[in-house]
Each structure stands twice: as C-alpha cells, then as structure tokens.
Design goal:
- The protein has about 500 residues and is α/β, with parallel strands linked by helices.
- It has 2 domains: about 325 residues, Rossmann fold (3-Layer(aba) Sandwich); about 140 residues, no CATH class.
- It is built from 12 helices and 17 strands.
- The strands form 4 sheets. Strands 1-14-13-17-15-16 form a 6-stranded mixed beta sheet, sandwiched between helices. Strands 2-8-7-4 form a 4-stranded antiparallel beta sheet, with no helix packed on it. Strands 11-10-9-12 form a 4-stranded parallel beta sheet, sandwiched between helices.
- The radius of gyration is 35 Å and the shape is elongated.
- The protein binds iron/sulfur cluster (2 copies).
- The site of one iron/sulfur cluster has 15 residues, from α8 and α9.
Length: about 500
Amino acid sequence: MTRELHSFPGGLQMPTFKTLSDQEMSILHPLPERLILPLQQHIGIPSQPCVSIGDKVLKGQTIARAFGYVSVPMHASTSGKIIDIGDYPVPHPSELKAPCIVIESDGEDKLFDIRPTNEYASVDPKELQDVIRECGIIGLGGAGFPAHVKLNEGVENAVDTLIINGVECEPYITCDDRLIQEKASYVVAGTRMIRHAVQAKHCVIAVEEDMPAAYAELEKLIDDDIELVKVPTRYPAGGEKQLIQVLTGKEVPSGGLPIHAGIVMHNVATAAAVFRAVTRGEPVISRYVTVTGLVEKSRNLQVLLGTTVKDCIKACNFEADENCRVILGGPMMGMHVTNPDVPVIKTTNCILVQENIPRLPEMPCIRCGNCVDVCPVNLLPQQLYWFAKTDNTEASQRHHIFDCIECGCCSYVCPSNIPLVQYYRYGKSQIAAEERRRDGADHASARFAARNERLQKDEREKQSVKEEKRIANQKEDKQSYINAAVERSKAKRALNKKTLEDTNKDD
Ligand code: SF4
Ligand code: SF4
C-alpha cells in the first residue's frame, strides 16, 4: 500500500545545483600528513584525551573517551604519532580555537585490533546501543547528537515508526545521495540494526523525488519490513519535524521531541555507520563530503576526519583565496568559515566555495509578509526579528523563537535583505545568556546565604566558647576568691593566736 503523504507549511522550491556533484563516483581523499581532531565534534560534553604527546596510535584506536552520558569517544583516523594536544581553529561560528588532538601520520594507515559484534538480532538492544556509542556514532546528517541517546529514548518509550532520513533538501549537498548509490547495502542493513535497537513497529526510509538513482539502489535491497518513500523536493523537507509531518501527518508540538509522537529518526549516513560499527567494529573516522561551488571539479570525497578543508578544496583542483568564501554545509544553513585550515569533522557534510560578493545593505522591514508565507514552522519571522533587535527576550520566547530551525527561508525571500537568521541566533544567545546570568545569580545568592549561615555559625560557636570560658573563669575566680578568703581567714586566725600567746607571755 502506498503511504499517504502530507504537507508542511511554507518552504521553498529553489534551484538545487545537485548535478554539479552527484553524477560521479566519490573518490578517496589521499592520506594527509597531519590530522587535527577536535575533542568536540558532537552535541554534548567534549571527549577527554586518553593519550599523551609522543604516543604511537593505530587507525581506529580510541584517543579520547566519552565524558558523561551525552558524549561519545573519538578515534584515531590513521596510524601515527600524537604530536600535540592543544588549541587549534575548529569549525565553529565563533571561529575561536578549541582543544584538539593532532596526529602525524606514519603513512602506513595500520588498523587497530577492532572486533565485530555477534549476529545483531541476537544481541540485546541495550548492548547494541553500547556498541554504537563506543564507535563514536553521532547524527551524521549535520545535527551531531550522540546516536545512543536517541536510541535509548526508543528503548525507554514505545516506538511506532523508525524513519531513516535520506532527504537531502539543501541545495548543492549530495553526500547522502552518493552514499546511498554507492553503499545502499550498508544503509539498509544499518536501518535493520537501528530498528532492532529501538524495537520499532514500522520502518521507513525516505528520499527526495530528485534522487532517482539512490531510490533505485535502495529498492533493489528492501523487503516488506521496510517502506521506501519518495517525498516531494521542497526545502526544508529533510528537517526532522517537517519530514515527520510529511510522512505521518503528525505535528511534533512546540518544545516536543519526535519520540513524543512515537517516532525516532536517524540519517542514512548514521545507518551506514551503524552497519560498519556492528558488523566490523569500525568507529567513525571518515565520512562522505560534497566539495562543490566554484571548485574546478565538484564531487564527493571520502575524507578522513581531521583532514583540513583547504586540502579537500585542493583535491578538487582549487585554491581558496580572499576572492571566495567557504561555507561548511549548504547555502541556507551552512557556516561561513574564514580559516580554511579548520578540519573536517563528523558533521561536515559539504564544503561549498562561493564568490565573495559583499552582502547587499540591510534596509528597513516593509511588512510585506513574505517571510511569514515561507516559514515551515508557522512562526512570525518579522515579529521575532523586531523582538531580537530590541533585546525583548520575553516576547521572543512567547513567540517561540526556539522553534525556529534556522532554515533561512525567511532571509532568502526578504526584499529588505535583512539577515533574519542572524537576528534569531543573536536572540537565542541573549536568552541563553540571561538564563546563565539568572542561574549564576541564583548560584551567587545561594552562595551568599551559605556564607552568611557559615559566618553566623562561626560567630555562634565563638560566642559559646567565650561564654564557656567566661563561666569557667568565673568559677575559677570564685574558687580563687574562696581560697584567698580561706587563706586570709587562716592567716588572721594564726595572727590572732600569736597575738594571744604573746599577750599571755607578757602577762
Ligand atoms: S520579508 Fe523582510 S521586509 Fe518582508 S515582512 Fe519579513 S522581514 Fe519585513
Ligand atoms: S529561519 Fe526560522 S523564522 Fe525563518 S523561516 Fe526558518 S524557521 Fe521560520
């Protein structure tokens, strides 16, 4: 039976530029001399190094351990020597440096002793989650959320449907499309493993209508246990909440999670990584990356994590200079980086090189309402813009700024060239800062109260010691007084006796 598809509000039809890079087989990027591996490549707590400078490591060896539940370990992308553990430029909007482990390759690419898991269907779902975690698997679609956390939600709640998301809706990006075409068996087997890990009743793999080759490869491999669905090409159909709405007609409520609708969603690349982890014990140390835009040869590369963005661009016959700008991700949601020495990390799906054209000047909002029409989550973008601009955090929250998925549809259609998403990011950061300040203030007032309490206690103790001393002194004084009186009385009696004796002698 064909699944009935639904729609989501807003969205955009736009040129996709996917044929630039989706026509040819991906190629392996050559082994770099040096790999820079940031300790934070996922949402959550950064991993903690378990190697030291000078250590020799093998490909796939754990070099940093997970720290806390929402964290994953990190593994060496090749064999070689740890030459530094320190701060390096990383892919982050702040462009600040962050802690990294640097490996100098020995050129041998020698593999660590990694082990597969037994036949997955006989393994307890919880154990499967541990395998997935130990292999450092996170949401490889770009979200970067540790996969085991989402799987655990599935074990602890009844899961109706597992959705494997192959809807690569952002223009230019084709890494999932090529991965499916080249490794469809990994995606399908990984999907079955994830389904076992969350014990889902139903399972759907979704791709976009403009991915016919990928669809055909999947179709060859699936049975009745998996439903394969083509969804209309419309941005941002691959967004988590939008895809759920298209496939099920269910709306995940504001602030809610897919699991609240009985759904768990993972990306196709995550499914392929799960297959590798379970059947071969392979951790996440490489990924498909689309390199496209101005480069001479747009294509997909299989890149070892830690390879620099500059090297990937070079591999596509291009030298990035000040006349171009480099975006990690797509043109709608990607992150502009000025330093091409940043490394490819687990969430880097695309390197887009564009001409560095100055942005058109921002003009006042003319209340045209275009932004409202395209918002896929039914927000009021122009209102949110105004609240963010005027630091009205209370109104921003009331108008659900945190439901904004930063898809960029509103900025794309704004005739006044207002960089709306930047305003929303600023608005969200202001709210987060306020919360931190409030938490800090609560913490400070708790500390102040504790300090007062401690000082009062000290004072009470001091007073009680003083009082005890005073009473003891008083007792001592009284005793001395009595003793002195007794002594005085004895002396007087002795004197009287002597006087009496002397008087008797004289008589
Ligand atoms: S699209 Fe731009 S100009 Fe039009 S209402 Fe929205 S913010 Fe204002
Ligand atoms: S960026 Fe946010 S406000 Fe703008 S269209 Fe997307 S979800 Fe709506």
